[in-house]
Amino acid sequence: MVRPPSFRFALPSPATEPAYRAFVDRLPYCSPDIERFAPDVAGRAFVDVWLRPGGDGAAVEARLAELYAAIARGAFRVPTEVWVDRRDRAAPPSRPVLDDLIARRWLVPFDAGRVALQGPALALYDYFDEQFEAIAAEFGAARAAFPTLISIETLERAEYLQSFPHHITLAPPLRGDSAAIDAFRRSVAGGGSRLASAAEPDHVLSPTVCIHCYEAVRGRRLAPGELVCATAIGNCFRHERDRLDCAARLWDFHMREIIFIGDRDRVARARADSVDRVTRWLDELGMRYWIETATDPFFIDRFAPQAYFQLANKTKFELLVDDPGGDRPLALGSFNVHHDFFGSAFGLSLAGGEPADTGCTAFGVERFVYAFATQHGLDPARWPEPVCAFVASRNLSCL
Amino acid sequence: MVRPPSFRFALPSPATEPAYRAFVDRLPYCSPDIERFAPDVAGRAFVDVWLRPGGDGAAVEARLAELYAAIARGAFRVPTEVWVDRRDRAAPPSRPVLDDLIARRWLVPFDAGRVALQGPALALYDYFDEQFEAIAAEFGAARAAFPTLISIETLERAEYLQSFPHHITLAPPLRGDSAAIDAFRRSVAGGGSRLASAAEPDHVLSPTVCIHCYEAVRGRRLAPGELVCATAIGNCFRHERDRLDCAARLWDFHMREIIFIGDRDRVARARADSVDRVTRWLDELGMRYWIETATDPFFIDRFAPQAYFQLANKTKFELLVDDPGGDRPLALGSFNVHHDFFGSAFGLSLAGGEPADTGCTAFGVERFVYAFATQHGLDPARWPEPVCAFVASRNLSCL
Are A326 and A302 members of one domain? Predict the structure, then answer.
């Protein structure tokens, strides 16, 4: 028996696609009383909400109205713009693949947002990252390996935690005394608070890669005409609450970035070149995708002005695909310029002393694997030739 | 001006080397009142202890006496045994390299236990992991990529948290309501408890790789004569308190493991073969090292019986090198058999239904890089030929 929703939250008028997406993205963070919700994908005119037992419906409705008002308050007057459109590729239609990936044990689901990859799925992961590295090498990028933990101080310097606190995972070690350690053991064996044994954390799990890079070169003054370029793959963590799954929305995932530091023209050109380079490669692979201007999912009250800035200045281009397993487009990567935002925060300057600009091109590695499988299927022999050849060179056995 | 120690804790009689090491390993966890301590490396007869202001010296002394008694109570009646000894290799003496690594920016220290690698140090990291994978391939190992987060339930099933709670890092996401998220933002900007906004964690940062593997094949019954073999590299986390550094004792590091599941003979043979294979390779590289029976650093009260079991049954062999930057040998890896401990815990069985045995061979990737540099120096042109050739094929530029 299906329980009817606790209430239907109606929007003042049907929302634009990006505004509706922004609303639905932030909705789960509005109240712990929300158990689940169902969007109106076709009409974008309402959301059905189920409350947890004892939930305060009036308070939740007020919070949703406040959120939608913040989003509507001018954030989306600038329309998104499509830069590259390959939605017309002739290819079999995308199809959901998660169940098949699991049945073949290419993907082993542990719990929401945590999976193991093996066999051809891991070979695809390696193929994609090798290609990302090859693209980075064409920019002469220095190779770096950064930690997974990042200090709260560094993220705060980048104003990251003020803008995107909602998906953060803290990393507190246990307190160093044996009383706390014993209490932790008891809490694990018999219930009770585990947090009570934790030290106040100075670190969180890194939600992104490029901020490590700015920290690593903090205070650097560039030579005249210099464009610093680096690449790294990083283990990243974003906790998307009830939206976590075992396919496209992982809590624990990997991102490959190519990072640029230099003057505005050079950074802009590097971004444009990386769009061209990625486009050529994906076209060779026969992928269906598009690239459009986008906004980051800033947390509620920071949202309106920053989103406006991003769209108006075309600072973020997103690489998107249709997701046959989800109800909206899936971002595989992005091409970003940050103007002198990080340069000022981390004391990076041009030869003349002005703050340097930065930019980064980012790829969600597991999402490339997933999207490729939805478009090209699960028979490696039918994959495009370069992928097929790479995968055939690996040990594909599965546990 | 050097402050004299608060007190000298004298042992009843000079300790054996392993007992003294076990004592000094656990000492930092005895009390938060301990600010620092200085071991008696030469005589192993005492430890000098500095207390924090207001620290309770009598309580700390009592705790230390208790700890040493637990260790002495029979844990070390079985002498360690050296299986392979290559401490006689003709080579220049090992020398401390951390300052040089930092000066060349091959290693960028962020804070205690967190570093970035780049240039030739990252190329060495890649070389070592490629070699580990090649060794795993000779065993026909399936390749897997596991998450970095591990559930407390899984670790508890493996009894890990009862034995090694002391170095655990928790991974609590923030609570999902906007009040908690706003409080977190305020705590970051203005001080206050960050933990107050955290949800009770169901996951921690994985301290090891192989337990993911047992979870991935939980409940598996093997075919007659089957030896399951898998390999994975994992990001691992062990918070060693004041002993964290930027060289050999990282909080955030990587481990490559080769995991075996089968009957006792096959697992024992696989371990012996992996010792032989690693020995041949390290000999080709002209490394100075030795392999001896060892015990895991179990937390205080679990220590005595398990350590005795490990030594008596030769379940753990450790690959050790001298560390010119530290005061005791450094473990680069280990070769372990676990009898049916994990097989019973995760329902892994042989064809006849009895619990399967497991074993694993583990390599600390960053430690191989560090130890190699202490023995072979920092001039890639003078590195052994296969290393030199591999490194020369990479982009070695540094940020």
Answer: yes
Same-domain status, A90 and A121: yes
Interface contact B41, partner A, CB < 8 A = no
Assess whether A24 and A140 both reside in one domain: no
Distance from the Cα of A197 to chain B's closest Cα (Å) equals 10
With beta carbons under 8 A apart, name residues in chain B contacting A142: 118-119, 395, 397-399
Contact B125/A at CB under 8 A: yes
What CA–CA distance (Å, rounded) separates A174 from B239?
Answer: 9
Q: Is the dihedral of CA A127, A132, A136, A141 positive or negative?
A: negative
Query: What is the per-residue pLDDT for B76?
Result: 47
Pick from B81, B84, B28: nearest CA to B310: B81
- Chosen for mutation from B168, B243, B261, B302 (greatest number of chain A CBs closer than 10 Å) is B168
pLDDT of residue B306: 60
Residue-level pLDDT at B74: 58
Q: CATH number of the domain that B362 lies in? A: 3.30.930.10
Number of domains in chain B: 3
Determine, yes or no, domain membership for A2: no
A186 and A154 in a common domain: no
Say if CB B296 and CB B306 are below 8 A apart: yes
Q: How far apart are CA B218 and CA A351, in angstroms?
A: 58
Q: Do B149 and A216 touch (CB under 8 A)?
A: no
A78 falls within a domain = no
Query: Could you say which of B40, B72, B104 is where a domain stops?
Result: B72
Residues A285 and A304 in one domain: yes
Q: Does B142 touch chain A (CB under 8 A)?
A: yes
| A215 and A194 both lie in a single domain | no
Cα A251 to Cα A245: distance, rounded to the nearest angstrom: 8
For the cut 70, the answer to whether the pLDDT of residue B311 exceeds it is no
Range of the domain at B186: 173-203
Q: Which chain A residue shows the shortest CA-CA distance from B110? A: A216
Identify the CA nearest to B172 among candidates A52, A174, A176.
A174
Residue-wise pLDDT tens digits, B73-100: 755 445 678 999 999 987 788 999 999 9
For every residue of B5-51, DSSP letters joined together read PSEEEE-SSPPPHHHHHHHHHHGGGS-TTEEEEEE-TTT-SEEEEEE
ipTM for this model = 0.87
- Which one of B188, B193, B250 makes the best mutation probe of the A interface by having the most chain A beta carbons within 10 Å? B188
pLDDT band (50, 70, 90) for residue B148: very high
Phi, psi of A390, deg, nearest 5: -60, -50
Do A93 and A115 belong to one domain?
yes
Please tell me whether residues B163 and B180 are part of one structural domain. Answer: no
Q: Tell whether B223 is within 8 A of chain A (Cβ).
A: no
CB contact under 8 A, A251 and B151: no
Q: Which two tokens stand for residue A205?
A: 């799990």
Of B161, B171, B299, the CB nearest to A205: B171
pLDDT at A284 > cutoff 80: yes
Domain boundary among B39, B72, B105: B72
Contact: A116, B149; criterion CB under 8 Å = no
Residue entry with tokens 């933002």: B185
Contact B171/A at CB under 8 A? yes
Chain A closest-CA separation from residue B16 CA (Å): 24
